[in-house]
Amino acid sequence: MQDKQTVHQLNNDYVQRLRASEVAHHAQKLALSKQRRGRAVRILIGFAVALVLCVWAYGKNLASLHQINQQTEVAQKQLSTAKAEHGQLNQKVKQLHNDDYLTQLIRSKYLYSKNGEIVYNLPSNSK
User: Fold this and answer.
1) Is the pTM of this model over 0.85?
2) Is the distance from CB of 111 to CB of 121 less than 8 angstroms?
3) What residue ranges are annotated as transmembrane (predicted)?
């Protein structure tokens, strides 16, 4: 057996230009893939920043909403107490227009008596 090479490479001008073209093409592909990778990284960083800003804004809005809901609950309680007080005051105003109630109120509160009438103030039984 012979170990001689039967294939010989040509080393002419055409082959050298072809190899140089292949090396340039390979270098150009590497540069292009590096540019694409860089662009993809910048896009991903932009999306990450936008996502962080959205999450931050959402959290801030959620906290603001919680605070507003608490304020609304407090205002609703104040409104209900004011409505109840308003209803009681309206009832008192209606009663003050009633002559019998007004006479009774004046006699009991201010100890008013008619001519010749004696009013005895008895202590109330409180235990």
Assistant:
1) no
2) yes
3) 40-59
